[in-house]
Amino acid sequence: MPRVPRGAGMTRSILPVLTVVAAIVALWYAAAFAMNQQWTRDQAARAGTEPTLAQIAADTMSQERPKLPAPHQVAAELWDTTVAKRVTSKRSLVYHGWITLSATLLGFAIGTGLGILLAVGIVHNRAMDMSVMPWAIASQTIPILAIAPMIIVVLNSVGISGLLPKAVISAYLSFFPVVVGMVKGLRSPDAMQLDLLSTYNADRWQTFWKLRLPASMPYLFTSLKVGVAASLVGAIVGELPTGAVAGLGARLLAGSYYGQTVQIWSALLGAAVLAAALVGLIGLAQRLTLAAMGMNR
Amino acid sequence: MGGPVIEAKGLGLTFETRDGPVHALKDVDLAVGKGDFVSFIGPSGCGKTTFLRCVAALEHPTAGTLTVNGTTPDEARRARAYGYVFQAAGLYPWRTIAGNVRLPLEIMGMSRAEQEERVARVLELVDLAGFGRKYPWQLSGGMQQRASIARALAFDADILLMDEPFGALDEIVRDRLNEELLKLWDRTGKTIGFVTHSIPEAVYLSTRIVVMSPRPGRITDVIESPLPRDRPLDIRDTPEFLEVAHRVREGLRAGHAYDA
Questions:
Q1: Is-contact B257 B243, C-beta < 8 A?
Q2: B83: nearest CA in chain A?
Q3: What is the chain A residue with the closest CA to B54?
Q4: Is A18 within a domain?
Q5: Residue A177 contacts by C-beta under 8 Å, 6 or more apart in sequence?
Q6: What average pLDDT does the segment B105-113 reach?
Q7: Using an 8 Å Cβ cutoff, are A187 and A124 in contact?
Q8: For residues B223 and B38, is the Cβ–Cβ distance under 8 A?
Q9: pLDDT for the residue numbered B1
Q10: How close does chain A come to B126, measured CA to CA in Å?
Q11: I need a surface site. Which of A8, A113, A236, B162 has the fewest CB within 10 A?
């Protein structure tokens, strides 16, 4: 049995990830052919010609408004809007990505801070323990697409517009996983550990700083990964309702208004790459923190 | 300064459960003097751990009186009069061994210099000098338990309460740790309360053996050990040792420990 070299998580999983990506791309090409060929056949019928299979295949891969853009079309669009454009241009995906990212990061920071504070309160205060959780859960059951326009309109009416309303929606979506994870983490030490601190006559804050908080770190990072992805979704959703002009959500919206499916797909892929990068960064922070705490074997 | 360090009179602890009251302790009378090494032995449910926890103010009795150092157990706990060693080492995985031993000293607000000095001294005492910078997962079970004992000794409490500390370890490590514990007791002169399941361990370590039995949890016999204070491991093969062990076994039998 060959020994798998123990490296960082990334290098070990590169080959399986690439394999899966290749399989997805192959399926994607097949689907593009299947979905776009109807339009090709209709156009050919109108022109009175009988295209061969090869001609149909070639055409489905290069339509201007395909039902499903082919991977190379999306790749070309991505290259065109990221590398080939100035970063400050309004057509640059990097520019739009940054707009969405700034709202995501601000919302994530607010949501995480709020989530941790609520978790600390729930664990230390009986009244909060019994009252906050049901409300937190209820808040997540309301569809975000319904709440987002309301939040934006209300905040706009008091003069707050632009970054902050989107950050509020991001925070709304990201605080919940942090609350749940932190409560579990802060409560993870067992009775024996708490008894031990009791024999030292430690007070609640000493118990918090020396036991509960370090014990909750693994749980926190897991929640942060979920939270940052939810935060990105919140920022994009926040760009949809009011017909925003900037951000990845805006690109998605504009693409759908004008039937530019390639634009939609490239914005989609841009968002996916952004999400993967954010989760990866949190994973890196997790490894560094746990290593500093001596918990990395 | 006279009087017993731990004194229980008519101590009782009853848990109210759905299936009726459970008498974990009933009418327990015991006086432990300074420098005694008292073992508590008995089958499950006889109340030995419960008694130790009452002394540590981790449980509260429902009847009788219990004093530690002349005051209530809670007062003694607040005065940090004892160190407690649990069955599992319970070390924090995010702290080094030295960091773990420092834990009570940090909570008690000692200066950094004093913490360093005490940690070094107490690691030396349990023969873990040089392991201060290692993490718990790098140590064996026996070494982790030694670190846990070091932690309990770090703040110089006069009383050491140990709840089956070597229960999870194998026989050979156990023998070695028993020897070390006796040496430690000799050097520090602490009063030790030791809960165990093992008859040889109880007889080897203690000056006094308290035999308990369950339902209700009570003391069946208190045996003053005739063995000399200085005990090499070989003493376990002597007839005096076997006699004491026999007495303990009789006490357990009288308390129906060997009944089905």
A1: no
A2: A199
A3: A199
A4: no
A5: A115, A223, A226, A227, A230
A6: 93
A7: no
A8: no
A9: 46
A10: 20
A11: A8
pTM above 0.90, yes or no: no
What residues does each domain of chain B span? 1-81+161-260, 88-156
Q: Is B255 on the interface with A (CB under 8 A)?
A: no
Which chain A residues are Cβ-neighbours of B103 within 8 angstroms?
Answer: 200, 210
Q: Domain B1-81+161-260: which CATH class? A: alpha beta
- Cβ atoms within 10 Å, residue B168: 15
Query: Which residues in chain A have Cβ-Cβ distances shorter than 8 Å to B95?
Result: 294
Q: Is the peptide bond before B216 cis (omega within 30 degrees of 0)?
A: yes
Least confidently predicted of A42-51, A69-78, A122-131, A278-287: A42-51
E-assigned strands of chain A?
none
Q: Decide if B155 contacts B163 (C-beta within 8 A).
A: no
Q: Any chain B CB within 8 A of the CB of A200?
A: yes
Domain assignment present for A255: yes
With CA atoms as reference, report the closest residue to B144 among B166, B125, B176, B120.
B166
Report the CATH number that the domain containing residue A220 is assigned in CATH. 1.10.3720.10
Domain that holds residue A204: 93-292
CB within 8 Å: A201 and B103: no
| Longest pairwise C-alpha distance within chain A | 91
Least CB–CB distance from A192: residue in B77, B88, B104: B88
Contacts of A217 (CB under 8 A, 6+ apart): A185, A289, A290, A293, A295, B94
Mean pLDDT of chain A: 88
Does B242 contact chain A (CB < 8 Å)?
no
Q: Which residue would you say has higher pLDDT here, A289 or A9? A: A289
Q: Looking at CA atoms only, how far is residue B107 from chain A in angstroms?
A: 6
Q: Which residues of B touch A210 (CB under 8 A)?
A: 103, 106-107
Q: Do A206 and B56 touch (CB under 8 A)?
A: no
Cross-strand partners of B25: B13
Number of domains in chain A: 1
- Tokens 């998605």 correspond to A252
pLDDT beyond 80 at A127: yes
ipTM comes to 0.89
A161 versus B172: the higher-pLDDT residue is B172
Q: Do B93 and A211 touch (CB under 8 A)?
A: no
> Does A162 map to a domain?
yes
